[in-house]
Amino acid sequence: xxSATNVTQELAYILVVDDEGANRYSVSxxxxxxxxxxxxxxxxxxxxxxxxRQAFDVVLTDIRMPxxxxxxxxxxxxxxxxxxxxxxMTAYATLGNAVEALRLGAHDYLIKPSSSVDIRxxxxxxxERARHLKRRRSLLDAIKSDVYELAVSDVTLPPADEEKEKPxxxxxxxxxxxxxxxxGPMLLYPKRYLISIGEKDIDLTPTEFDLLLYLAAxxxxxxxxxxxxxxxxxxxxxxxxxxxxxxPHVSNLRRKLKEASTDADLIVNVRGIGYRLNEKSGDNTDTx
Length: 288
Hints:
Blueprint: H1 4-7, E1 13-17, H2 21-32, E2 37-41, H3 44-53, E3 58-62, H4 70-80, E4 85-90, H5 95-103, E5 108-111, H6 116-146, H7 148-152, H8 174-179, E6 181-183, E7 186-189, E8 194-197, E9 200-203, H9 206-217, E10 223-224, H10 225-233, H11 239-260, E11 267-270, E12 274-277
Parallel strand pairs: 1-2, 1-3, 3-4, 4-5
Antiparallel strand pairs: 6-7, 7-8, 8-9, 10-12, 11-12
């Protein structure tokens, strides 16, 4: 498990929301002691206003508050800033609240009073998850700018007399990018961790999907295993260890892709160096 002190080698911004000042103070001090940049809000309305003005990695909020309670705050954050990680706290735990929190995408559910260790560990995991989502967003942004022509290559143009100007990368909406993306023989569904080849849908794990995104964003070159571990998994290891970490994920990804396509391997292993994306059939590079 990643410790809070390791996670905070890079700045992490936390928002603590609680209508009781003593609770806000206690939780904030607990997190500030390990290096987090902590802001406070006394209610849900204030929290939402702060989120519109500043980017937070994690929001740690009480559930039972006047006005906008923690569950409603979670719901609105998911609509307003879906990449913010939300951790709920309550002294009145109920199964209904827990189920609703998980359904709405809460990262964790802490029972008051929580120890400093529990709070720090929960937030550390949340920060790690937030950074994973940011890395994933950067991959999508890279694909948006560098692989844009693939995203629009399968668009059916209207007759010449009705033809409209092809949209530029700047005018392609984020919603369109996240909906589907064409990459060689694959149709990607970024929000669903799903790809399709021909008529076959392939479910991928988050790590498998992000590996594919990273290789797509850096197509045309071989990516080392240590780079894949660092950028996709979020930590640094030596190349020898990185090969052992990444090989099972790549092997599973390659197997799933190969089962869905009669084409050449789409993920190519360049022995002794790393992996690259192969968008052409008949590639003769050595594979595992």
